[in-house]
Structure formats: structure tokens, C-alpha cells
């Protein structure tokens, strides 16, 4: 069976090669394959007669690094079939940030043996004078996501091959760190060519000399730069609820926060209706604060933590979206809604006694009417078309007039309730949420009436003394201004 021997070339100096590996390379009678010729050891070995064949041209031919690594792996496997043993060299240590090595180890067609090599991390820690025990992340600059980064730890980006990669790293970091944040560029750590350069983050891809031996070090960020991170918010809330924290926060319970939590949701609706992005940010923050505070109370009481809350909603979203996270096929929003309800029913594990179960008790009455009729409609309890609802509305309005003529308070209240209930159903037919619609009407009335007050005040007229005609005129002006 053919075999591929993988040898690491170390951090950048031929003197770092173990003597046994050095002898194996200089005595090789065959061509030695290398991921890249851009390494100081290659030049030294070529001077001693070692023949190399590299894959640098593939980096120019492919747009994605993943495609390059796949091509290199396939080429090596094909070449290995024609020989008993093939030698393949990579910079540093084969088991450190070498995707081609991982791909070769995953296949079963050709035997693979890793011969070792010196990692440059030891030299890097020494050059930077950092201790990885404090917390350390080693990140592939060509393949990472911003969410992976923990700025409280030492972060080192490897595989920063060119200015394009450096630019991508910079743009991701600028989402979290200020432009003048100091970062360190390390070249050929531990070798005679070693250089260490401090630059501001915004200059990362402007001044650096790029090579195969380039790394970028991001020092741990202070807390004042991490106020936008979830973990820091969680720590702040834990501090507020601690024995040395805030008396008000420590006193709160799930029950005491109920009314405030409801208020925050309505304040968000107001911000959305106003189209005010800054206010939306603030109100979403207030809602998130309530989620964290309720979760911290749960943790302090020993019942649950924010991790349980997040796990619950993550599991639910994945489970109820099989068309995204599994192989279920859907053709429309209606299919999605139908699957959602079926999965929701299976998830609960029990049949509800009534189709109308599951509506929050404290939901505002208009919103509750909307929900009740929406649930009833799902089992076919509704008019065939909206004309039936309009006829029902006419019928209920006549009954209101009759109740008014009889001057019976309870009867009038009952009939007005029926009118509102039918209006909620009418809104449902036109896919309008009646609670939101009424809230818009309330805001519109407040805006127009406030305009009347302002105009009367400018003219020195007490609103209590103003005529209806004057107020109507300003009302019409307010409508025109909208």
C-alpha cells in the first residue's frame, strides 16, 4: 500500500529541523512535494540538492482557500498511487493549522504518517511574552466567524497569507474594537528573520509585509470595550443582583417585574410605529435587560439560568424549522405555518382540551378576541367569505342601537362588546392585527390633539374656552401636516 509521509518544516529556520528529519529530506531520492515554496527552510534544502514540487500556483487559480486545499489533497493522493512512499512538507507542525493534513488523515485510500516538525507557537509566545494559560485563541485568518472570537483572551491569527486576508481580519475586528486599537504583527517568530511590529488596527492591511510566516496578535481587550457583548451584559446583571449590588435589583422577583416587562413591549411597539431606529435599539435593549434579569433571578433561586433559556429557544427554532435544518420540503408560507402547528402539538406531548387553549390570560381584550377567532378559524369555524362578517357587523350595530334605546347599561356593554369582537374578526380577514391598528389610531389622535393644544397656546387661547370650530380647523391642519 502506498504511503504519504508528512513532514513539518518548523517555524522558519533550517537549524530548527530535528536532525533525523533533516537527513531524511537531504537524502531523499525522489521529488519532495510541498504545499508552498514560500518558506526559508525550502531555500536551504534546495541549496543542498533537494528537489521540491509545490502547489503555489493553485492559490492563484482558485478564489477560495477551501478549493485550493481540496485540489492539493487530490493531487497528492493521485501522485502517491504511483510510488511506494511520497514525502509532503508543510510549514510549522503538520498538526497545527494545516487543512491539507486534516484532509489527508480523513481519507482511507492511502496510508498517511505524520513525521512531526516544530510548531512556531512556542517561539510566538516567547516573542510576545504572553502566557497561554491566561486564555488563548488560535484562529485561522482564512476561515473564521466573528462570533468565535473572545476578546478577553489572547488571540493569534495565523494563515494571514496576503493583504486580502489581512483586510478581512481587520474588517471583522473593527466590528468590536476601535480603529486605534493596538495589534501586533509577528513575522517568522523564533528565526533570524523575526520581526515584531505594532500598528493600529485600521492600519493592519496597510503597512504589513505579508508572507507565509505572518501572524497577527490581538491583545485582550479591557472591559470598557466589551459593553456590546452578551457575556459582559450577563456579568453586569449578576453584579447588580449580588450582595454588594443594587438594592432595587436584588429585591425584584418574577412577579414584581410583570408590569414593567409588559410596558417595555409596548414601548418597543411605539418605537417601531414611529420608525425611530435609535429608540428601537433602546427599547430592544430594555426587553433584553428584562430577559437577563428574569434569568438571573432564576439562577439566584436555583431553578434555571440564561443558558437554559437560550437552549430552550434554540432547540425550539431548530425543531420547528425542519425545512431549514433538516430535509423537509415546503412550497409556501402556508406549509411553514401548518408544519409549525403540527410540530408544536407534537412537542407539547399532549392534546389540549380545547382548540382555544394556549391564549395568555393577561392578553389585552382586543388582541385576545383576535386570537380566539384565529384559532377557531383553523378548524373551519368562520364565514365562507368576508361578506358574512360585514353583515354580522351591521347586525351587531343595530343591536347596539336597540340597547341604547332601551337604556340598559349591561345590555349596551354587552352589545358594544359584540361589535368590537366582530371588528377584531373583520381585521383578521384582512390580515390586520386590531391591537396594532388601534394603537396607531391612538397615537394619531394624540399627535393631532397635541397639535390643537400647541396652536391654541400660541394664540393665547385656553383650550377649555376654544370653540369646536376652532379645534376642528386645527385638527384638519394636523391631518394635512401628516
UniProtKB/TrEMBL annotation:
Which residues does UniProt call coiled coil? none
The record's keywords, sorted A to Z, are: Hydrolase
GO MF terms, alphabetically ordered = methyltransferase activity; nucleoside triphosphate diphosphatase activity
Domain (NTP pyrophosphohydrolase MazG-like) ranges: 252-325, 392-448
Q: Which SUPFAM superfamilies match?
A: all-alpha NTP pyrophosphatases, Tetrapyrrole methylase
Record flagged with keyword Nuclease: no
One GO biological-process annotation of the entry reads: dATP catabolic process
Recorded superkingdom: Bacteria
Q: Which residues cross the membrane?
A: none
User: Where does the record place the Tetrapyrrole methylase domain?
Assistant: 4-205
PANTHER family associated with the record: NUCLEOSIDE TRIPHOSPHATE PYROPHOSPHOHYDROLASE
Q: Specify the protein name.
A: Nucleoside triphosphate pyrophosphohydrolase
Question: What organism is this sequence from?
Answer: Oceanobacillus profundus
Amino acid at each position: 500500500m502506498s504511503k504519504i509521509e508528512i513532514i513539518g518544516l518548523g517555524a522558519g529556520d533550517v537549524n530548527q529541523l530535528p536532525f533525523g528529519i533533516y537527513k531524511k529530506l537531504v537524502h531523499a531520492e525522489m521529488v519532495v512535494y510541498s504545499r508552498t515554496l514560500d518558506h526559508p527552510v525550502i531555500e536551504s534544502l534546495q541549496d543542498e540538492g533537494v528537489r521540491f514540487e509545490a502547489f503555489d500556483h493553485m492559490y492563484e487559480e482558485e478564489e477560495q482557500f477551501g478549493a485550493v486545499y481540496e485540489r492539493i489533497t487530490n493531487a497528492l493522493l493521485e501522485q502517491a498511487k504511483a510510488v511506494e512512499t511520497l514525502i509532503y512538507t508543510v510549514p510549522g507542525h503538520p498538526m497545527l493549522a494545516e487543512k491539507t493534513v486534516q484532509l489527508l488523515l480523513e481519507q482511507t485510500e492511502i496510508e498517511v504518517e505524520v513525521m512531526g516538525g516544530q510548531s512556531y507557537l512556542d517561539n510566538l509566545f516567547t516573542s510576545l511574552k504572553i502566557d497561554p494559560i491566561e486564555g488563548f485563541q488560535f484562529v485561522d485568518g482564512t476561515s473564521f466567524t466573528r462570533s468565535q472570537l473572545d476578546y478577553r483572551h489572547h488571540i493569534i491569527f495565523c494563515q494571514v497569507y496576503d493583504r486580502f486576508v489581512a483586510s478581512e481580519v481587520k474588517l471583522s475586528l473593527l466590528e468590536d474594537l476601535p480603529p486605534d486599537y493596538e495589534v501586533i504583527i509577528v513575522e517568522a517568530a523564533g528565526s533570524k528573520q523575526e520581526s515584531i511590529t505594532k500598528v493600529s488596527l485600521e492600519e493592519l492591511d496597510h503597512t504589513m509585509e505579508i508572507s507565509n510566516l505572518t501572524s497577527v496578535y490581538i491583545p485582550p481587550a479591557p472591559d470598557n470595550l466589551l459593553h456590546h457583548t452578551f457575556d459582559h451584559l450577563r456579568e453586569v446583571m449578576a453584579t447588580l443582583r449580588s450582595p454588594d449590588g443594587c438594592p432595587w435589583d436584588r429585591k425584584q422577583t418574577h412577579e414584581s417585574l410583570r408590569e414593567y416587562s409588559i410596558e417595555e413591549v409596548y414601548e418597543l411597539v411605539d418605537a417601531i410605529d414611529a420608525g425611530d431606529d435609535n429608540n428601537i435599539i433602546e427599547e430592544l435593549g430594555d426587553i433584553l435587560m428584562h430577559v437577563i434579569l428574569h434569568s438571573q433571578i432564576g439562577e439566584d433561586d436555583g431553578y434555571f439560568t440564561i443558558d437554559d433559556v437560550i437552549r430552550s429557544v434554540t432547540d425550539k427554532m431548530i425543531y420547528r424549522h425542519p425545512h431549514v435544518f433538516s430535509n423537509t420540503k415546503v412550497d409556501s408560507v402556508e406549509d411553514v405555518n401548518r408544519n409549525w402547528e403540527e410540530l408544536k402539538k407534537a412537542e407539547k406531548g399532549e392534546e389540549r382540551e380545547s382548540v382555544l387553549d394556549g391564549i395568555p390570560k393577561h392578553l389585552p381584550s382586543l388582541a385576545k378576541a383576535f386570537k380566539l377567532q384565529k384559532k377557531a378559524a383553523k378548524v373551519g369555524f368562520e364565514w365562507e367569505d368576508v361578506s358574512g362578517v360585514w353583515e354580522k357587523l351591521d347586525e351587531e350595530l343595530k343591536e347596539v342601537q336597540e340597547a341604547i334605546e332601551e337604556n340598559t347599561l349591561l345590555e349596551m356593554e354587552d352589545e358594544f362588546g359584540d361589535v368590537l369582537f366582530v371588528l377584531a374578526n373583520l381585521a383578521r380577514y384582512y390580515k390586520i392585527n386590531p391591537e396594532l391598528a388601534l394603537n396607531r389610531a391612538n397615537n394619531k389622535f394624540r399627535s393631532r390633539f397635541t397639535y390643537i393644544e400647541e396652536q391654541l397656546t400660541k394664540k393665547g387661547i385656553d383650550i377649555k374656552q376654544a370653540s369646536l370650530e376652532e379645534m376642528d380647523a386645527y385638527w384638519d391642519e394636523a391631518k394635512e401636516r401628516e
